[in-house]
Structure formats: C-alpha cells, structure tokens
Amino acid sequence: MSKKIVISAIGGPEVLKYIDYDLPSNLQKDHVRIRQTSIGVNFIDTYHRSGIYPLPSKTPVCPGLEAAGEIIDLGTEVEDFNIGDRVCYAAVPLGAYCEIRDFPSSKIIKIPNYISANTAASILLQGMTVEYLFERLYKIKKNEFLLFHAAAGGVGLIASQWARSVGAKMIGTVSSDTKAELAEKNGCAFTINYKNENVFEKVKEITEGKGVTVVYDGVGKDTFNVSLECLDFRGLFVSFGQSSGMVPIIDLHKTFNPKSLYYTRPTLMHYTSTRNELEQSSNLLFNKIQNNEIKEHIFKTINLKDAAEAHTLIESRQSTGSIILKP
Ligand SMILES: NC(=O)c1ccc[n+]([C@@H]2O[C@H](COP(=O)([O-])OP(=O)(O)OC[C@H]3O[C@@H](n4cnc5c(N)ncnc54)[C@H](OP(=O)(O)O)[C@@H]3O)[C@@H](O)[C@H]2O)c1
Predict the structure, then answer these.
(1) Ligand 1 centre from 76 Cα, in Å?
(2) Cα(66)–Cα(80) distance, integer angstroms
(3) Quick one: fold of 142-265?
(4) CA-closest candidate to residue 216, choices 249, 170, 253
(5) 308 and which of 16, 31, 151, 224 could share a cystine (Cβ 3.0–4.6 Å)?
(6) Which residue, by CA, sits nearest to atom 36 of ligand 1?
(7) pTM of the shown model
C-alpha cells in the first residue's frame, strides 16, 4: 500500500485527505514508475481543490502537477530513460500528491547532477513559467520596465532573478515591506507595497509618466484595473493567473481600444506541449541555475500528509517563494 492525498470534495484545505492506494498492476508501455521524493505545491493546486478550475473526473481526485524522484520501473516501450534515473515533471495529468506514480515518459525530464530533487520539485513548474513568459510569449529586454504582481511569490521570486539576469527593470507589487525586501534582494529593481502605496502613481513616477510595455498579472480580479492603467500605449497585458479571483467579464472595445492594448491569457502547458519545447524550456532554466543566475527559495518543507497546511499558507499570502511536500 502507498499513500496519497485526494481532494475528497470541492472546498477548503480541509477536504484534502491522506489515504492508502494500490498501484496499477500493469505499467503502461510508454510510462515510467516514479518513487517521488519531493512534490511541488503551486497555486493552481488550490484552484483544482476550490473548484475555480474543473477536475478531470468526479472526486476523490489526487491533485498536483509537479514532482521529482527516481524511476523504479519502465514500460516496455520506454527507450530514453533507465531505472535509477533522477527525474522531474511539471505537467498533466493531475496526481503528483502521492508516494509512487506512473507517468508518461514523454513528459519527464532528467534532473542534472548539480540540482537536487528538492530544488527540481520547487522550481520546475514556476521556473518554466517564467521562461515562457519572459523569453517566448514576450522577450523582455535590457533596461525595459515591466510590471509583475506578487513579486515575492513562487513565480515572482524566480521572475525577479530572471529579470535581473537579462538587465530588465522589474517593478514588483507586494503586500508587505518584508516581501518588498525579499523581492529586491532577488533582483526586482523596484517594489511597490500596494497596502500603503498607489501602484499606478508609483509606476508613473518610476517610468517618468510613460507606463510599462508589459504587465504580468497572476493576481487577477484585484489587479486587473491597475494593470490596465499602468500600461503604455500598445502595451501587452499578460494575465497568467488569478490568486485573488477570476478577472472580470469586460467590454473588449472600452477596455483595450483607448490605448490599443494587447491581451493574452496563456498557460504553461501550451508552451511546453512538444518534447522540443519542454526540453528547451527546462534546459534554459537549469542553465540559469548552474550559472547562479537563479536560485530556489523553499519557504517550507511539509510532510505530504499535511498538504492542507501548504494550501492554507499559500492562499493566506503568508508564503514567499515555493513550498514542497515530502512523501
Ligand atoms: N498561466 C501559467 O502558465 C501559470 C503557471 C504557474 C503559475 N501561474 C499563476 O501564477 C500565480 C502565482 O503562482 P504561485 O504558485 O507562484 O503563487 P504565489 O505567487 O506564491 O502566491 C500567490 C500570491 O498572490 C498574491 N495575492 C494577491 N491577492 C491574493 C489573494 N486574494 N489571495 C491569495 N494570494 C493573493 C500574494 O502575494 P502578495 O501578498 O504580495 O500580494 C500571494 O503570495 C498564480 O496565479 C498561478 O495560478 C500561472
């Protein structure tokens, strides 16, 4: 018997239950069996649990999209991996919150020897997100101002470091002075504590009245309007998440025409859908780690059985950086 967490019903963190399960008797021919040693917690896991995003089937459902561990068995058609390989993944299907799982070999990545399993599980999903946001969706440039909400969060601290490595001037919003200090230490050029500063006025001041060319907004409902305000003419609004709730339903013409703005609502899975994209994205991230341009920030390591605590921490804005679960 192995152990896993399931979402027993749609609801708060208390619906996460720790239960026994049996592994399938047959390993699918293109899958590998992974003994997981670290599991990444991401805000999206809370959307699945709370019902903001639909679940793939009726409850109970094992959540989670990211983990690292060791291959303990191979399907008959798996060629590129061996038993004993250290691997990680950040992809569907859901089901990372468990001790052992079968996973498609086409979506796993070998962990380089200079990266630990804990680091891999804490950084792969959030790091590849920053890679596609900053390198492919829109290529940020040296000395360019960009606005990024929740700069001290999991994605935010990696974004701060990535922006610094490019020489871009990231303006990050945060909810406390402690978070501001942390984001700045990680390379965020300017921080705005939105609890006591006016984000629009500060962005205007920093950019000498122009506004930013791009805003990365993972907060959603609460930041939608200020993100629009802070953009320069022909700016790009990248809405990549909704930690405060879904963005409002809006009038396209009234919202985007006054400044000829662009709007996109991207998702990581569409930027890592081919093997080539997945390898290039993870390699770029791993290279930045090897070059000491990016470092993981593990806020807390929590026992898998206490996954509810991880969800409470991330939803209550108490966490900075990433949280990992240990089976
Ligand atoms: N589209 C994609 O491909 C993709 C991939 C990965 C992640 N994401 C999104 O990126 C965002 C960040 O993810 P993460 O895992 O790194 O989380 P996170 O940033 O560590 O945590 C969320 C942060 O959002 C801020 N926030 C503002 N209002 C909030 C509210 N009402 N409730 C909770 N938090 C609030 C908080 O920062 P302050 O206290 O500083 O306000 C909080 O720390 C999420 O929206 C996630 O869904 C999207």
Answers:
(1) 40
(2) 20
(3) Rossmann fold (3.40.50)
(4) 170
(5) 16
(6) 317
(7) 0.98
Taking the centre of ligand 1 as the mean of its atom positions, its distance from the CA of residue 242, in whole angstroms, is 7
How confident is residue 118, by pLDDT bands cut at 50, 70 and 90?
A: very high
- Domain segments of the chain as ranges: 2-122+297-326, 142-265
What pLDDT is stored for residue 216 in this prediction?
A: 99
Q: Which of 135, 219, 247 to mutate to test the pocket of ligand 1 (most atoms within 8 A of CB)?
A: 219
Contacts of 226 (CB under 8 A, 6+ apart): 199, 200
pLDDT tens-digit series, residues 258-270: 999 999 999 999 9
* Total count of residues recorded for the chain: 327
Amino acid at 285: L
Mutation test residue for ligand 1: of 39, 41, 43, 263, the one with most atoms within 8 Å of CB: 43
Classify domain 2-122+297-326 at the CATH superfamily level. Medium-chain alcohol dehydrogenases, catalytic domain (3.90.180.10)
312 within ligand 1 shell (Cβ under 6 A):
no
